[in-house]
Design a protein that fits this description.
CATH superfamily of the largest domain: FAD/NAD(P)-binding domain
CATH architecture of the largest domain: 3-Layer(bba) Sandwich
Shape: globular
Number of helices: 8
């Protein structure tokens, strides 16, 4: 579907229309790239149910009192780009064959539809996990646990992951290391045990060097890492966490990572398989013509992290632009990206991962340093400036 606009002399001008669902890393970068390339010559609509954007890594800062909730939220009203309209609407249904979307405010149709709604959380399969309470992957959960932490001075803290894949794979490790620092600063670390229960085989499977560095940091701090051990239930009354296989851990403080999967509205549209949207990993095309899926909900085989979503979004933007200009779409998702990892003591490391260049994924580990801390700050600040015109994030 194209729309018709009128210039000052009443001459009709047809604008191609692109509809983007979701204003996370993928949606924001996609819309920004298209705006830079086409300006007002293209009609781009972005829909998101929220009114602010939050970098995922900032939730840990909120959890440990290093930032206020207000400071980490970037209002969507500040996302102002030529040719782009960002609307606060909740998606109710998606018809991918017709490229038609119904929201709580109306119906949208477009020539190109990009679904970038991210991953949602499914607590139905893990008894005892409660969104906004004993998990730190939502802002509400991070705020709640921030207020719980001062009451924890003795006992067993469990950072538990319910299933894989999940967003920001290093985050549970970061949480454990930051919790160690937090309890040490309060003078109660000796009375507390910290355990990470993770379904993966190591903290960062694509990079053995990174995994070894994290395991060494855990050993140095007395943090237990349980591999291949997803959490299947939490019982706060009995103060236990149950792992796959039936093992129970004592648990006086639970900081959880709920099961991740594609949003219900995408599942209802018939676009998912085993919880994720089926796509061509290099082009992000779905089986439906003119429909792409980008970001955490897309099954590309790469980590569910902002850097990877951003790189994939650029490839999609370039291909949409080429198609609308009647050119060959030859951009490809590089499958590369970086994850920053807080090692405690205000030191940050970074792992650079490449999933598509060779027969197996490879990762390069950049050791924790002050320079990497500044690099991470610049990463957030540059995106805040590019998308929202902010000097810092």
């Amino acid at each position: 579907m194209a729309i018709v606009a009128f210039v000052s002399n009443d001459q009709a001008v047809t604008k191609h229309q692109v509809l983007i669902l979701g204003a996370g890393f993928a949606g924001l970068e996609l819309a920004t790239w298209l705006s830079e390339r086409h300006g007002n010559g293209l009609a781009v609509t972005v829909l998101d149910k929220a009114d602010t954007f939050v970098f995922g890594f900032k939730k840990l800062d909120v959890l440990f009192g290093k930032a206020t909730p207000e400071a980490v939220q970037l209002p969507y009203r500040d996302f102002v780009k030529p040719g782009v309209s960002l609307k606060r609407e909740a998606v109710r249904s998606i018809d991918p064959a017709a490229r038609r979307v119904v929201t709580d405010a109306g119906t949208h149709e477009a020539e190109m539809l990009v679904i970038a709604l991210g991953a949602d959380y499914d607590v139905s399969t893990t008894p005892g996990i409660v969104l906004g309470q004993n998990e730190f992957y939502t802002l509400e959960g991070a705020i709640h646990l921030r207020d719980v932490l001062p009451t924890f001075s003795k006992g067993h803290a469990v950072i538990g992951v319910c299933s894989a894949p999940y967003k920001c794979p290093p985050a549970p490790s970061e949480c454990a290391l930051m919790l160690h620092d937090y309890l040490t600063e309060r003078g109660v670390r000796g009375d507390c045990k910290i355990t990470i229960a993770n379904p993966m085989s190591s903290p960062v499977p694509p990079s053995p060097e990174t995994a070894r560095a994290l395991l060494a940091a855990f050993a140095e701090r007395g943090i237990e890492f349980l591999a291949n051990s997803p959490v299947v239930a939490v019982d706060e009354q009995r103060k236990v966490v149950t792992l796959a296989g039936g093992r129970e851990l004592p648990c006086d403080l639970f900081l959880g990572v709920p099961k991740n999967r594609a949003p219900d509205v995408v599942v209802a549209a018939g676009m998912t398989e085993n919880g994720w949207v089926t796509v061509n990993p290099r082009t992000l095309e779905t089986p439906f013509p003119g429909v792409y899926a980008v970001g955490d909900m897309a099954n590309t085989g790469t980590p569910k992290a902002g850097f990877f979503a951003e790189n994939a979004a650029r490839a999609v933007a370039q291909n949409i632009s080429a198609l609308l200009d009647r050119q060959e779409p030859n951009a490809r998702n590089p499958g590369t990206g970086s994850c920053y990892i807080a090692f405690g003591d205000n030191r940050i490391a970074r792992v650079d991962v490449d999933f598509f260049s060779g027969p197996t994924p490879t990762g390069v580990f950049n050791e924790p340093s002050e320079a990497m801390r500044i690099d991470k700050q610049n990463f957030g600040a540059s995106r805040a400036a590019r998308w929202f015109g902010r000097s810092e994030a």
